[in-house]
Specification:
about 80 residues; alpha+beta; 3-stranded antiparallel beta sheet; 2 helices
């Protein structure tokens, strides 16, 4: 079975709740802060295979009003195959 590569990231931007779903091979708290910064328009979205990009840290993101970043694996969808027949 394929591992979960979809993650839900929730955060606050100037006190307003935001959330999005991201496909990534892995996720950790530091990555979640960086991706929340990308969603908020603060950080640069890395190109495929670009590993030397400077990531936005929690203290830097907080300077731009990003707080309370949380992440979890997204719920897996159950597709009903017989509905298309």
């Amino acid at each position: 079975m394929k591992t979960n590569e979809l993650f839900t990231i929730e955060y606050q931007l100037h006190g307003k709740p935001k959330s999005f779903i991201l496909r990534a091979p892995q996720m950790n708290t530091a990555d979640a802060w960086h991706w929340a910064s990308c969603d908020a328009g603060v950080a640069v979205i890395p190109r495929f295979g670009q590993n030397n990009l400077k990531r936005v840290s929690k203290p830097m993101a907080e300077k731009y009003g990003i707080t309370d970043v949380r992440w979890c694996g997204a719920a897996q969808l159950q597709w009903a195959e017989d509905l298309t027949q």
